[in-house]
């Protein structure tokens, strides 16, 4: 990015971004110092880090948000300081990080930097996320690290929402007998998931349970131009079909939102002919409706799964197909309230044509509402 393009961070912003993390990289578990001397001169300073944009300055760049003004793009709120290696990864969108993920990493890097200068500051914060492994395991974890080149993600397991360590052991042990479509991981904070390329590794490291996952590069995103056509969105399901409602034809990204609504409103497993159709929303609501925050995160996890996890045996198609493959990641899910077992949910999705789209949906949150009307 040329410094003269009018969108570059001012020097004062770059200095503050770097200083607020003690001139160390903000990427989880990196913390590499990014400044030092040039040894051959008495006054030279060598910098090996830079300010990355959380939301890109240019259309087509990672996490570009057309609604932002140039002033917002240059503001300190839109920057995160990283070493050159991790800056290349973030600016190159190699790991597909959501805005929320980068903001969280920045926030935690600043807290860690504060802890370094004030040892009495006892709050130790780490980047948390829910992680789903295959269909039946969901755990609370801390991001330990990521190697984008080797597609390796590492998490410390804190506690289980579904499943347990024994279930992970069995998944690893029986990995080869699982259908390929069941070998996947979903990362709630990032709002996306990936197929695994080999069995996970579970290790004890200094009393911590650490799981390492090697994932496949995502190559099967829906064509962005097709996201604007409901007819083609539904062809993704193997069905040449428009979505018809009382309001008339629904097209474009609203049709994708409509698909999410339909999937959330269908209980996964209720259709014997297509057991992967639908979602676990009813299960999550039944088990966790008193914990608003956890329920919201579980719903985000479930919608994130739909962006990449294919239906193994679709009623609508013999080939595995991905329900909402034109969504790159789920940026946000907010429960706006529930009444009579209907959940109002605000969705904030980032599409493969690098634009956001938000809408509100309303879904039945229990089987009674879904089937009890008859
Ligand atoms: Zn780094």
In CATH terms, what is the architecture of the largest domain? Roll
Strand content: 25-35%
CATH C-level label of the largest domain: Alpha Beta
Order of helices and strands: HEEEHEHHEEEHEEEEHEEHHHEEEH
The total beta strand count reads: 16
Mean pLDDT: 82
- Going across the biggest sheet, name each strand in turn: 9-8-5-6-7-11-10
Oligomer: single chain
Task: Tell the overall outline.
Answer: globular
Question: Which fold does the CATH topology of the largest domain refer to?
Answer: Nuclear Transport Factor 2, Chain: A
User: Level of helix content?
Assistant: 25-40%
Largest sheet: 7 strands, antiparallel
CA distance, first residue to last residue: 60 Å
Question: What Rg is obtained from the alpha carbons, in whole angstroms?
Answer: 22 Å
**Number of structural domains:** 3
Helix and strand composition category: alpha+beta
Bound molecules: zinc ion
- Poorly predicted parts: 1-5, 227-248, 369-374
**Count of discrete alpha- or pi-helical segments spanning 4 or more residues:** 10
